[in-house]
Fold these 2 entries.
Entry 1:
Amino acid sequence: MSTPLLEAEDLTIQYQTSSGPLTAVSNASFTIESGEYFGLVGESGCGKSTIAKAVVGGLDSNGAITSGTLRYKGTEVQDYSEREFNDEVRWKEISLIPQSSMNNLDPLQRVSDQATEIASVHTDMGKEAALERFQEMFETVGLQPSRIHDYPHQFSGGMQQRAIIALALFLEPSVIVADEPTTALDVIMQDQIFKYLDEMKAELDTSMLLITHDISLVFESCDRMAVMHGGQVAETGSTTDVYDDPRHPYSILLQEAFPDIQHPERELGTIDGTPPESYGQVAECTFVERCPWATEECLEAEPPLDSVDGNERHRAACFRMDEVHDRYEVEGKPEATGIQTDGGAR
Amino acid sequence: MNPLSWERVPQVLGPERIVRAGRLLREDKELLVYTSILAVVLFMGLFGPWLAPYDYTATQYGADGTVLRAEGPSLAHPLGTTHIGQDVLSRLLIGARPTAITGLLGGVLIISIGTTVGVTAGYVGGWTENVLMRLTDFVYGVPLIPFAIVLLAFMGFGLLTTILALGLILWRGSARVLRSQVLQIKERPFILAAKATGMSTRGIIRTHILPNIAPMMLLYFSLGIGYSILVQAGLSFIGISNPFVPSWGVMIRNAYDSGFVQEAWWWTLPPGLLISLTVLAAFMFGRKYEEVTTGESDESSLAMGG
Amino acid sequence: MSADAPLLEVDGLKKYFAQDRSLSDVLLRREPDYIQAVDDLSFDLHENEVKGVIGESGCGKTTLLMTLLGLSEKTEGNVRFEGTDYAEFDRSDWKEFRRRVQVIFQDPFNSLDPKKTIRRSLEIPLEVHDIGDRERRIHETMEMVELGPPERYLDRYPNELSGGEKQRVSIARALILDPDVIMADEPVSMLDVSTQAVILKLLSRLIEEQGLSMVYISHDLSTVSYICDEINVMYLGRIVETAPTMELLSDPQHPYSRELIDAIPVPNPHADRERTSLEGSTPDPIGLGEGCRFRDRCPKRMDVCETTPRTVGTDHEVACHLYYDHDATQATGEVVRSTPDERLAETGSPPTDGEGAEADR
């Protein structure tokens, strides 16, 4: 087994606030292999955006990785300075497709100039070579190569996003971090973009870390995934594993909550409550208040990410992962949530 | 439409507001400093005449019966005397009142006109907005000091006329800024929802717009106070003021006129220092307050973003 | 359900926005370009009916909503509430309208005045309409939207509530005047998925219990199906298809509806959905003349699509040339529906030289 391309191990990230250290991510672990598309799914407050920022070295000024490691191609990068990150990693190894293209394309610069600027800062590539590469990328994402000299406002919203993808790719990074790349776009445009992302996978052998709240995108486009809740990784594995055999209560319930256009008559699942905001060290499962299968045990410590049925590639962080699975198969989701002292038997 | 600038923000000094203000002051030391300075000046403005040890026009005599001309600080006269023997400290304390009045009235006038123009232009839009904004542009083009000189030449060199001159020009900044704030707010769903429930334009402005631009209004009110004091001091210095009302600006002018300005530092330094401190405190208070209140709402939305 | 007279009637509604002209344009007296946000739209709403309007951004659905709410003036056409045209409303008509027709917006973070407590936000509409017994009404409405006990929430400010809770308050505000119609602008699209269903179920229940009517606009077909009886698909200012929800989802007839539904991602890694073959993006609705507005991107385009298609069908309506027999229509003057299969068999791949259309004749 070769070294994974990107590996997070017990990563904890906190933000300093006036109310104390806000723990956005607690002991998160996951791995991304080369040439693999990995989806990180969760709802607001789960920490996925924080992880995205940490991976590209762009955490807000009051945020920091307080423990754990982040390894890129085997090298620990969590302690890299801004300079080191810029020189070694950013754009040419790991690049970012951010959420809203409007804030990330300089409206005063031609797109081609932005490309050459990026190339000169992060590589030794000459201007000619950079432009050539960039034009190729334009073609790959379905934009006319001659348009590289246009200004951002000359492109429509969807095309701007594609231009950003071209920018993120042309230095051929090994990992692209896509943070909700299509949230602001209409569904047809979203499909167009994912079509290109699919094609790129075949052509370029780039890995992608897709951060999204939409589990359908992950199921359709990714090979492996992780589900996060309240800063903790609830479950991780291949998309088929997590779909066919979800073990963490949140994975189960989250999937129930997503509408499926192919089965419109299906009742939509709901999850009570909201994710907690954790300060300081987290010593419980953050899903406990919302979980229908919670017990006292869940309050005592952070559940470790253990393998499911011995499969190292499929892991869930739940003390009751086996029981929950069996119960769910038989009874479906119980009515009440929160701690059940009788073990959740209904 | 006549918006309600005169029925301005009902900054109801209810118990909740006071508690919140107290907490803000305790938390932010900088804000506390600025508020204190302003409080001291206000105090001097209110009680100055009673606190002044001597009559501010009286000539002071020394133990030997001679007039104390331009004497330095001493126990009897902590800030020394002027060239005709008046006690500087007393003049300073008396002078606080016109300064405080200028600041407060000037600020009120500036923010009243500014809010009326800005909110009407921003909310009503259309031709009204065009006309009001062109008016604002015009006023931007009017140079302040020459305008003041001309107006005072016609209306007399009084404190109130000076304040009027300032107020008629300095509202321009707040008008622009408040208009742009209103433009942003008026598209927000809660305003549309208010319209959908049948609220009148006046009602919406009074109930929803004004409270939401209140922090910015307070900022510009503070700036207004600062600018008013500063400009009035400047006008006094160049002689466009009533020389018998010993505002701090006038004191500096008197010192300058007397020829003792280089030696009698005790005469020029205190008023100059106080003017600077007051204006600075006013500006910084406004800025800091706005920063702090905006910061509060930002932090609570930080937690929302995954 | 719809035997009585409609509450809302929209007839040939057009809402155009004139684009800014440069000085030279004005001097040369050039006609401004118009953004044809809503173009010749007709629509009815009866008591206790929930109609959805689906479309992507720029299709005009928000403009439609604003016009239905009377917050935006129409350019042409009629909009009637209980038979009276909005243009003929007098003051008391508007007062009544503003009590009986309410709105819920999509952004929970901006739908409530941040400077007002929850109680105040609910009280203000009651003050505007001079309705008494306020405490009781406020409490009742809070219970209706399942924010209980009300005391826990009433003295708080919006920033202390979660997204889902804020939306419930928005719904409470819409309900507090005891309206007949609620306009909803994607009320769940900014909420987490786990909360979306909760709010949708709540709305569904309230509609049932209070006998409300609703116009629900959204870009998300998958949630709309939960709450709407009927769906109208909108494209560039026009309604291209109208059908009962389940029917639209199982048998979308308009090529655009098909593309839209096919592009929705499916939460199943085993499903083998084909990616969209549609290229480009929706153009701006400016200076569009006659003809089907989807023709430039339509895989089934024919020559005849240069003329504006008429809407055909009774329960399942569609505005597409594929669906009516042009000859018969011309002959009898009435629109005669044809099955699309006949036409498609001829046309095959999208012709641009009209050979398909010819063969049919």
Note: The longest helix of chain C spans residues 193-210.
Entry 2:
Amino acid sequence: MSQTRWRQINDLFHEALARDPAGRDAFIDERAAGDDELAREVRSLLASHHRSGGFLEAPAWEVASGLLADGEGAGLVGRQIGSYRIVEEIGRGGMGVVYAAEDLRLRRMVALKALPIEYTRDPRRRERLQREAQAAAQLSHETIATVHALEEIDGVLFIVSELVRGRTLREELQDGPIPSNRLLETLIDVASALAVAHAHGIVHRDLKPENLLRRDDGRVKVLDFGLARFTPAGDAPTMTKATEQGMIAGTPGYLAPEQVAGGEADPRSDVFVFGLLAWELATGLHPFGSNRSSQIARLVELSEGRLVTLRGVLSLAGLDPIIRRCLHREPGLRYPSGEALLQDLRCLRENSRGDWMSADGLWWWQFHQWGVAVLLAVMPILAWMIRRWVGPLGPAMFFTILALATTAVTLRLNLVFTSRVQAGRLTSHHARLFPWIARLELGLAALLVVSALFIAASHEATAAALIAIAVVTAASILVIEPATAGAAGIRQG
Amino acid sequence: MSGDRQSLDSLLPAVYQELRRVAAGYIRRERPGQTLQPTALVHEAYLRLMKDRPDRWQNRAHFCAIAAHSMRQILIERARARNARKRGGAQPRVTLDEALVAGGEQSFDLLALEEALQRLAALDPEQARLVELRFFGGLTVEETAEAMEISPATVKRHWAVARAWLARELEGRTGA
């Protein structure tokens, strides 16, 4: 096609576009005057014009932001940098470029991650990075990829860390949720890493499936502790600048609301992100939806105090309350640090013995608790009604029953509360409280029987009712309670 | 942009670094109902670079043109590199489907767009430049008009037809 031809097409295109759609076809034919190719071309362009909607309307850097994140520095493989020989590229993309390299001095394999050139220029930023690297290097735990050193080679800063080989959990998520038999162990590994780091005053700030690596032996290691915001992962220069200016640092889908609001990340921010991660690992779906904009939207809603519905269904009843506690909008209502979170997860593991608490069973158990509580509440009322028939011991009987029943109700309701708020501790809590509940209720049953005997001669029907209630109470303790607790997955001590 | 190819090339890295930095900041601050303002982005990068070395820029339009061109070069280079890594240079190529497109689920091949844009440049260099400014530079109609020293109405006309043509070219590719 020639430039003149293109002009011609352009002119007719605009003239036709200015016309009423109804008369457009006739107009094109008329103006093309037998030039079928011209008419066809203009019609096809007009059709494309109407179809193309938002085509090219969003600027390139927005639609191709992933490309912008691709780091420079390819082609280092095979070369020697300082005392490191680059063996292969092991990670790229969201994480920047990470190489496996041989440390020629210590004869060991390490992971090398190049940092953006800005760090070598700005002494203040460099100093801060140095400090953070020193702190991160203190962390040594089987669930943390240890940072060995921060090295400057030919004007470029490299983070040298333990080389971990394996699959990131992001890759695992592509095959769906983490199977339930390894989910809890996975979460415990991540929480252990957080617990150790938080105890050292180090916050991860950038937990995400890409930063979690499962080794061949099944254990998970957390990468980039404390250094996350310095790595090319999130455009490090902006990131540091952003942190300085109180802007958001991190990956949108894995941020705590207070980070969106521009606040500093603390251990509780890691806890929040752990909640998001745990949900995603358990269900295979990010709780705020799969795309970046919906994640940002949910996060902003949350940071503004609005309620947010989580995507996906969590069928693991025991894990649900733990995740929900992590995901509290208010940092103060979350686990204060990785340690508390880890404790609950460990409790859950011990209690579930590999089986998850059944949500259905838990419902029945809770229903049973409420039922017994009502029954217990009725007892003092009955005792009040019959206190005169019992004789001089009546008031004493009433007060004893009142005291025992209120105590038992309190303990029962406390168990229900625990099952809702801290399911992870339910079994141990149940094991501690239940013997007392059993004694109290069997005692109550006995008192009811004694009262019934006192009044049997004068008030037969009431006595029978009392005995019935006593039998139901005893049966509830001895038969129903163990059955429903078993169904709920609460281990019997 | 007037002919000064060498100075343009020497400015690209600085502009690119700045754009990337600013863009990343904007994307992070993105909120529903208040989408990224591309022009604000370019302005911010421009102001920072102006503060840094005011003598390097003739005017804002000059800067925008360089920014757009730099963005195009970098994105295309990276798309090529990524494809090379994935499939030894063969299809399929990078598609822009990162769900950030304003309207939703459109996705297309950045390298196919680049090829089509080069064909468009043969037909109409001015339209190709306009697409570079609008799409790669993120300029508004008014800013494009200013940078190209033509009227906003002309920008709109060129944009409509160039966009329709490019969309059809890309459809033809993916449809085949």
Note: The two ends of chain B are 37 Å apart (CA to CA).
